[in-house]
Design brief:
By secondary structure, the protein is of the alpha+beta class. The protein has two domains: 5-43 and 257-450, Multidrug efflux transporter AcrB transmembrane domain (Multidrug efflux transporter AcrB transmembrane fold), CATH 1.20.1640.10; 69-84 and 97-249, no CATH class. The chain contains 15 helices and seven strands. The chain has helices spanning 5-11, 15-34, 48-59, 114-129, 142-149, 159-170, 173-181, 185-188, 220-237, 252-285, 290-311, 318-343, 350-376, 386-417, 441-450, and strands at residues 69-74, 82-83, 103-104, 139-140, 190-193, 200-208, 245-248. Strands 1, 4, 5, 6 and 7 form a five-stranded antiparallel beta sheet that branches. Strands 2-3 form a two-stranded antiparallel ribbon. Helix 2 (15-34) crosses helix 11 (290-311) and helix 10 (252-285) packs antiparallel against helix 11. The longest helix has 34 residues, at 252-285. It starts with a helix and ends with a helix.
C-alpha cells in the first residue's frame, strides 16, 4: 500500500478525482431516471403468500364493478379534521386505548343552515353531472334523497329540524330501498348527531370516481393527477363559506400523502446524516477542511449504492427509506479512518501524509469492507422477506462503493489538495493549536520520486 499503491495513486491524483466525480454525477443521473416509488412489499413476487393473495383477488374476489369512491364531509374542521396521537412508541397501535386517541375536530361555525343544505345538494348535483370525474352519475347523497322524498319541506330551518327529518327518513321504505339497491349505502352517505342527539353535527356524501382501479396506489406520481382534478373540484364546490373535507374511501390520497412525506423525510434524513457525519469527522480529525473531502466520498458511495438498487428493479418505499439512511452510517466508516490517519500523520507533505494513512489503515479498510460485503452475501439469496433482500443489496454495494471511492476518489484528493500543517485545524479556535512539523528533505525527495514527472 505504501510503496506501490501510493505512488500509482499519486501519478493519477488529478485524473482519478475527475473520473470519480464524473461517475458520481452519472450515478445521480441514473438515480434520477430510475427512481420510482412503490407500494410497501413484504414478500417477493414468487412467494406463496403473494401468489395466494393474487389468486384470491383474481379468481375469488368481488364480482361487482369496483370503483374508487371519494367522500365529502361537512361539519369537520376543514384545516385539521382529525388529531392523531404523537408517540415515539413503535408499537403504540397495539395498545387498547390507541384508537381512542384519534380525536375528530369539528367546525364550530358550520350550523347546517338552509343555505348550507342547499349548497350540499347543489354540490352533489354538480358531481353527478361531471362525467369526467364521476361515471354515470354514481353519487350517494342522503340530503338529495331527503329532498326528493319531501321537496316542499326542504330546506329545513336549522340543524335540529334537519336531524328530525333525517331520522324520520331513515324509517321510510324509500331509505330501505336505497340500502337494498346499494351495498353498504349507509357508509357512503349519512350523518352524525351531536352528543345530546338534538341536531346534525357532521354529514357526508360520496361519489364513485373514474380513477382507474388498476392504478398503483404505492406510486404518488400516478395518483397525483387524479387528486389534482378532485382537489380543484372540491375548491369549486366547497368554497370558504361552505367548506368541506374530501377523502378517498380506499385511502388512495392518504397513501399518496404518506409516501410523499416518507420520500421527503428520507431525503432530509440523508442530509442530516451527512451533516452529522461532517460534525463527527471534524471532532475526529480536529480539522474543518479534511471532512469536506470525506463527505464527497460518502455522498458518491450513497448515490451509486442507491442507483444499483433501483437499477435492480426495486422501488422507493419504507424499506428503501430506512436502508438509505442506514447506508450513510456504513459509508462513513471507511472515509473516517482514512482522513483521521491523514490529519494526524506527522509528515508535512500531502503525499507523505496520505502514504502514512494508507500504510496505517489501508489494509484495515479493505478488511472491514470485505467482511461487511461478505456478511451481506447471504441476504442476497433470501427468498422469504423483501426487507432482508433489499438490506443485502444496500449493505453489499455500500461496502463495495465505499472502498472504491475511498481509495480512488478520497485518497487522490488528499494527495492533490489535502490540507497540510495547521491549515483548517480547529485547535487555534479553542486555544490548543499544534505546530506544523518542518518540511524534511526526506519528505520532499519522497514526493518528488513519486511524481510521474
Amino acid at each position: 500500500m505504501r510503496d506501490k499503491f501510493a505512488p500509482c495513486l499519486y501519478k493519477l491524483r488529478w485524473v482519478l478525482p475527475i473520473i470519480t466525480c464524473a461517475m458520481a454525477g452519472g450515478g445521480a443521473a441514473i438515480l434520477a431516471n430510475n427512481f420510482e416509488e412503490g407500494e410497501q412489499q413484504f414478500f417477493p413476487e414468487n412467494h406463496p403468500v403473494t401468489l395466494i393473495d393474487e389468486i384470491q383477488q383474481e379468481k375469488f374476489g368481488s364480482s361487482t364493478d369496483f370503483k374508487f369512491a371519494n367522500v365529502f364531509m361537512y361539519g369537520l374542521n376543514p384545516t385539521t379534521p382529525m388529531l392523531f396521537p404523537k408517540s415515539s412508541n413503535f408499537f403504540a397501535n397495539t395498545e387498547d386505548e390507541f384508537e381512542d386517541e384519534f380525536v375528530l375536530q369539528y367546525d364550530s361555525n358550520y350550523y347546517f343552515t338552509p343555505s348550507d343544505q342547499i349548497a350540499i345538494v347543489t354540490n352533489c348535483d354538480a358531481m353527478s353531472n361531471d362525467t369526467t370525474l364521476v361515471p354515470s352519475g354514481e353519487v350517494y347523497c342522503i340530503l338529495n334523497e331527503l329532498k326528493a322524498s319531501n321537496p316542499a319541506a326542504f330546506p329545513y330551518a336549522d340543524a335540529t329540524a334537519l336531524r328530525t327529518a333525517l331520522v324520520a327518513f331513515y324509517s321510510t321504505p324509500a331509505y330501505a330501498a336505497l340500502n337494498l339497491q346499494y351495498d353498504g349505502y349507509a357508509s357512503f352517505t349519512g350523518f352524525m348527531e351531536t352528543d345530546n342527539q338534538e341536531s346534525v353535527l357532521v354529514l357526508w356524501q360520496s361519489a364513485n370516481t373514474t380513477i382507474p382501479t388498476t392504478i398503483d396506489r404505492g406510486i404518488p406520481p400516478q395518483i397525483k393527477p387524479y387528486y389534482d382534478n378532485w382537489d380543484a373540484k372540491q375548491e369549486q364546490e366547497c368554497p370558504a363559506e361552505y367548506p368541506c373535507v374530501m377523502a378517498n374511501r380506499e385511502g388512495l390520497f392518504s397513501s399518496m400523502a404518506t409516501l410523499d412525506a416518507m420520500r421527503t423525510t428520507a431525503l432530509i434524513n440523508i442530509g442530516l446524516a451527512l451533516a452529522v457525519s461532517y460534525v463527527v469527522l471534524v471532532l475526529v480529525t480536529f480539522n474543518l477542511l479534511v471532512p469536506i473531502l470525506a463527505l464527497l466520498s460518502i455522498a458518491s458511495t450513497i448515490v451509486w449504492s442507491l442507483s444499483v438498487v433501483f437499477l435492480a428493479g426495486y422501488r422507493f418505499n419504507a424499506n428503501a427509506a430506512i436502508l438509505s439512511v442506514m447506508a450513510v452510517g456504513l459509508a462513513v466508516d471507511y472515509a473516517v479512518h482514512m482522513v483521521h490517519f491523514y490529519n494526524h500523520a506527522k509528515s508535512s507533505t500531502r503525499y507523505d501524509k496520505t502514504q502514512d494513512a494508507l500504510f496505517g489503515v489501508g489494509i484495515s479498510i479493505i478488511g472491514g469492507a470485505a467482511t461487511t460485503a461478505f456478511a451481506a452475501v447471504p441476504l442476497l439469496f433470501v427468498q422469504n422477506f423483501v426487507f432482508f433482500l433489499m438490506a443485502g443489496w444496500f449493505i453489499f454495494f455500500t461496502a463495495v462503493f465505499g472502498i472504491f471511492f475511498t481509495f480512488f476518489q478520497l485518497t487522490p484528493l488528499l494527495m492533490a489538495i489535502g490540507p497540510t500543517g495547521a491549515c483548517g485545524d480547529i485547535g487555534p479556535l479553542c486555544g490548543c493549536a499544534r505546530k506544523s512539523p518542518p518540511v524534511s528533505s526526506t519528505s520532499q525527495s519522497a514526493e518528488a520520486s513519486a511524481s510521474p514527472l
